[in-house]
Design a protein that fits this description.
Structural class: alpha+beta
Number of domains: 2
Helix content: 25-40%
Largest sheet: 7 strands, antiparallel
Distance between the termini: 30 Å
CATH architecture of the largest domain: 4-Layer Sandwich
Radius of gyration: 23 Å
Oligomer: single chain
Number of helices: 18
Number of strands: 25
């Protein structure tokens, strides 16, 4: 079975918000979400306001499937937020669990879109239910809304500041009331969030800067860890409650998740991946004929490896961008055939050659195994796998789907065993020192929990998680 969702690390969502007086923003939000589609493909939604009422629409599916010209035409407003979601459990795949979440509280309406994951979600849910809160979804984002609403006697900024004291884990939020837009980032800055200027008096908030580019907005800066940004008729205002000497930006944004044309906390994603490839060439020199990549996530690192090593880079695998998801195919035989439809080797580039294949990660190993076999079938003399990150050994509790520990091949096998399992002639991972060197020029601190088990924001407080890590 070839299923990208099971074979790659996946982020859970992307957020977008815009305040643009005099403009109808629904189509702009649509474009922003389309540019963030790589962050989530299970569902999406848009909420807008003309200043006195929040109207919204959301559903399961890709942005282009959920929204039509007619649907966008019904969403009138100069202020709005949007969300794309990735989910992994069947329970999460409901229209009800898509975002933004829209609710009514003491001062009116509120809509919220969330990227990340809370580690104290169960405790918060129980606490709020004991106080009479009702929940309509099974996602932790609704608990953030409930927590903010529980401080309804305060203005929104104070309510959010108080909520942040109780929130544990990872969150980048875009929040709107009928006439204001807010951007909130957790004290560790684990998930990305940036600000842009749109026109003369408009502002944009997005998970990645590529979404600003999509609508012609100008990048201003990243939202700081622990910061609340308020955007209203008086412009942009900032409140910051928390300060951390060492932030914990997710390292997998640069390994795989973010688009190469994005900049996050001063780091260009394309540059970071290229440097990872260069570091990999220093650590794992090979005597091969060509360097190829597993498209698209391994391509930039492969180019960096080729530049540093002097070995020519060539396109050895063609990625078909128009295949359906293989997990919907009716038979196992058809699922197996999807490997060749999605990733098809180019025989002329491979036949009789010793090849180095660069990819960003090996999560469960089954796809790498099938790919190595396929490359040999297309004439590769030797297949050496190069991974531009350390082995993924631990689950992420901060909004990235890395799978359970028992599903992670590197948590059960050493490098030599993984190499034997996937059938490669050799296997080399970038070291922890190497990957941090590739991004050290940024001055950021990074969360590397999925690589080394060091969880800067703790783990959820339930027994099966603790047992899985022991």
């Amino acid at each position: 079975m070839f299923d990208d969702r099971l074979e790659k690390v996946n982020d859970e969502c992307g957020v977008f918000g815009i305040y643009a007086p005099g403009r109808s923003v629904a189509e702009l939000i649509y474009l922003g979400l389309f540019s963030l589609q790589h962050r989530g493909q299970e569902g999406c939604g848009i909420a807008v306001s003309e200043g006195n009422f929040i109207n919204h629409y959301k559903n399961l599916g890709m942005v282009t499937d959920v929204f039509t010209q007619h649907t966008l035409g019904t969403l009138e407003g100069y202020l709005g937020i949007g969300h794309v979601r990735y989910s992994t459990s069947g329970q999460s795949k409901t229209q009800q669990n898509t975002q933004p979440i829209v609710a009514r509280y003491q001062h009116g309406q509120i809509a919220l879109a969330h990227n990340g994951s809370l580690t104290n979600a169960a405790e918060l849910r129980n606490h709020l239910m004991e106080r009479g809160s009702l929940f309509h979804t099974t996602i932790d984002s609704e608990q953030i809304v409930g927590l903010i609403a529980s401080h309804g006697q305060d203005d929104m900024e104070q309510a959010m500041l108080k909520a942040m004291i109780d929130l544990k884990g990872s969150y980048s939020l875009v929040i709107m009331t009928e006439n204001k837009l807010y951007a909130v980032r957790d004290p560790y800055g684990n998930r990305p969030l940036c600000l842009g200027k749109f026109g003369e008096n408009g502002y944009v908030v997005a998970s990645e800067s590529c979404a600003l580019d999509a609508i012609g907005a100008t990048f201003l800066r990243d939202v700081e860890p622990g910061e609340i940004v308020t955007i209203d008729e008086d412009g942009l205002h900032s409140t910051k409650l928390f300060n951390h000497a060492q932030n914990a930006l997710c390292i997998f944004e640069f390994i795989y998740i973010a688009r190469p044309d994005s900049n996050i906390d001063g780091i260009n994603v394309n540059k970071a991946r290229r440097l990872m490839g260069r570091e990999l060439a220093k650590e794992a020199p090979l005597d091969v004929d060509v360097v190829i990549s597993v498209p698209d996530s391994g391509t930039t690192a492969a180019i960096g490896y080729a530049e540093e090593s002097g070995i020519p880079f060539t396109q050895g695998i063609l990625k078909n961008r128009y295949t359906g998801r293989s997990f919907i195919q009716p038979t196992q035989e058809m699922r197996e055939q999807m490997v060749k439809l999605k990733l098809n080797p180019i025989r002329d580039a491979l036949e009789g050659k010793r090849i180095a294949v660069v990819d960003d990660s090996i999560v469960r190993g089954t796809t790498s195994r099938k790919l190595v076999k396929l490359l040999r079938e297309y004439g590769a003399k030797e297949v050496h796998m190069l991974i531009s990150a350390p082995p993924v050994k631990y689950p992420c509790f901060y909004g990235v789907d890395t799978g359970n520990p028992e599903e992670l091949i590197a948590s059960k096998m050493d490098v030599e065993q993984i190499c034997e399992y996937i059938g490669a002639d050799s296997l080399h991972y970038l070291s922890m020192e190497g990957i941090l060197k590739a991004v050290e020029w940024s001055g950021c601190g990074f969360c590397t929990a999925c690589l080394n088990g060091a969880y800067p924001m703790g783990i959820p407080n339930y027994n099966n998680v603790k047992e899985a890590l022991e």
